[in-house]
Every structure is written in C-alpha cells, then in structure tokens.
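Structure, all two chains, one model.
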Amino acid sequence: MPALKLYRLYISRDRKYARVLHNMLGFVPRNLSLYKLAFRHKSVAPQLKEGLKNSNERLEFLGDAVLGAIVGEMLFKKYPYRDEGFLTEMRSKIVNRNHLNQLARKIGIGDLMDYDSRMIHNPIKQGSLMGDAFEALVGAIYLDQGYVFTKEFILKRILKPHVDVDALEQTETNFKSKLIEWCQRHGKEVLFELMPNEEGARTKLFTVKVFVDNEECGTGQDFTKKNAEKTAAEHACALLGL
Amino acid sequence: MPALKLYRLYISRDRKYARVLHNMLGFVPRNLSLYKLAFRHKSVAPQLKEGLKNSNERLEFLGDAVLGAIVGEMLFKKYPYRDEGFLTEMRSKIVNRNHLNQLARKIGIGDLMDYDSRMIHNPIKQGSLMGDAFEALVGAIYLDQGYVFTKEFILKRILKPHVDVDALEQTETNFKSKLIEWCQRHGKEVLFELMPNEEGARTKLFTVKVFVDNEECGTGQDFTKKNAEKTAAEHACALLGL
C-alpha cells in the first residue's frame, strides 16, 4: 500500500472518516471534504453566501450528469440492437429517484448523512434525500478521481452487485399499487381525483391529481384515465422517495 | 505526424472523408464508420433489424449524455457560487435543440449530413436534424477517443470559439418573438390560441396552443396567459429547430 494511502487511513486527522469511506467505497479518497459535502443536506448546511448554502445540491447536479453518461454508455454497449427509446427508458429505470434511494440505502449512505433530524419521521420531507446524496457522491468521486475511475466504480461496485439490469428490463413499475401499499403501511389516506376536462378542448385529455393525507403529491395527464393515474402516482412516488 | 495519421489522411481508401473530418474537427479520427453513422439521419438509414434503423439516433442518445456531463462540469467550475438551479438553466441554454442546431451549422455539419433531400424545404420536418447530428457526433468522438479527449474537444473547439457563456447568462430567450419573426420571414401564419379553462378546476391554469399554418406546434400551461404563451412558443421553436 503506498505511503500516502497509509497516511490517509491511519495517521491523518481524518483517518476515521477515511476508513469509513474506504469500507463503503472500496478505495481511499483523496479529497475528503468533497465527500463530506456530498453527504450534507441543505437542512443543516451553512450559508456560503447570499442565496447559496454549502450543501450537496451542486455536487448532485454534477453527479446526475456524470451518472447519466456512465449508465447511458453501459446500456448503449449492452444493447447494440435496441433503439434510443428503449435505452432512455432503461436508463430512467436505473437512475430514477426511487431506484437511487434504494441504491443509496444498500451501500449505507444513511449512516454518513448529515441532515436535520426532524426530517427522519417525515417521509414526505425526507423524500429523495438518499438518492440525491448518492448522485452527489458520484459528483464527488468524479472530481476526486476523474471520469474513468468513476465509471469503473459505478460499473463494478454499484451496478454489478446491486442492479439486475436484465430483471429491470422485464419490469414495468406499477407506481399506483406501490403508492397505495406504502400509504396503507404508513396509515395515510391516498386519493386519486379526476379533474374536470377542459371545456371545448380539441383533445380529450384526462387530468388526475393524487393527494396523500390531503396534500397534493402529483399530477398526471393522458388520453386515458388509467395512464393519467399512473403518471400522477409516479410523480407522487418520486416525491415521497418510494 | 505519426505514420498511422499519415496513412489515414493520404493513403487509406477513406482518405478524402478523413481529411474532411480532420478539417472540421481538428483531429484525425480513428474509426470513420462511427462518424458516418453520426451523420446518417433515419430518413435514409438502412434497416438493421426489425424495428431498428442503422441511423444516428443511438449515438445521439449517448452524445446527449456525454455532452450534458461535460457542459455540466464546465459550469460547475466556472460558477462556484451559483446554485444548481442556475447551473441547470445555463446548461439548458447551451444544450437546447435550438442552440445545438446553430452550433452544428457553425461547424459545418450540414455538408456531411446524409438525409432524405425531400426534407430540405420543409423546416418542420427538418426540425432538429442538425442538433441531433451534433449530439451524435459527440457520441462518436467519445467512442472513438474517450472521455478526456471529448471534453478537451468540446471545451476548446466548440465552446471557446462558438459559445459566449457570459452573454448567454444575460439573455432570456424570447421564444415568442423569435417564432413570430421566423413565421413572417417564411410567409407562414402563426396563431396562439387560448384554450378554455378546466371547469371547476382548483387552480386557474391557462392553456395556450400555438399553430403554424394550422399545424399544432406546441402547448403551454401556466398561471398567467403570457407564460403559457411563452412555453408554447418555446416548444414550437424546439420543434421547428429555431
């Protein structure tokens, strides 16, 4: 093991944090402050300057883009005979908020997260906290180690052990039943409300809003009521981080 | 100049094409077939297998993702004190269809494009042909030369000479006047139509549709009529590739 790695893991002031990250990620990060930032939710972030908190949101922006490119290339190469519509759909199954929340939990991001503890028992507020932090982590790794390293990390350490891409190909996520089950489990009332049609509209579009405990959580619009409900439920699932 | 480069530019069977690309891109590509594919619109693409044409659409999917990551990082580093909302907006000003169409024309993609010539005089059909090919080109360069090279290429050869990021920061694109001007110049009739409100809807949303020569080109929905028109015009500009 090179001297610098040894130093970071066993001698430096931040050695404990470095070892935790080493266990989680499988490599020794260089710039620890990037990782600390990735796990800092805006609810506890200090003001950096007017209108900007020193939270993980900027890293999330970067990580989202890098993750999209990495997963996009993986799918492009894995499916040489599928069109771009299929590739787009598959990518969104992998990088959607719900799935990223699960991935983040699997690799144990929760233990490192820094956020206002009042959010813990409010799933609506907590929402996509974990998935956002996962994206921010990807941004941190990218800045710390570069694109090629980040790609290797995502492919070998995240996708290979945690994501069954072939199974995802078969699933069509049923967001409506997912939402209803979640509400039953958490004792919340869920309501799908069909909004009246536009009067004299040329197309017959259905608009459905979904309310969880009277709080509007999503809207969907489509040519069938069923599809409008589906979209509304999908939005609600994303909002609730399911 | 290394022997392989010389061979590609002056001896190989495809030397003419290699020299054209060299002039346009500033480097000698390795795998020319990737670039040919990037410039092949689906209107002239051969069937690869059922449901899939051998066109540039898959490369466009890949290039879109890679370009998003590269531009995202550039903005992340250029604006250390701006939040992710600003970064997202700036990126979309750079990589939106209209702007990519312009960029593609600037670097001369039109001369290399392979598409059904019946589309030439139909701007609605032509739409974002050039911008799509630009993204596909980014995908081709990425597969041919890797991420670091592609990033250098985009930053030095595209963004630096062709995009004034500071000026873009100031502009708020006025899509409505852009659309109207374009229609006047091309002798087309443009019509913004306010659709009737939803009866009994809780919120007072305005829906505006825009028609160019009686063809619906975009819809917008917002709480003010003006903003709904703006969104509708933006969609129409994207569709028309303005």
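The CA atoms of residues 10 and 80 of chain A lie 46 Å apart.
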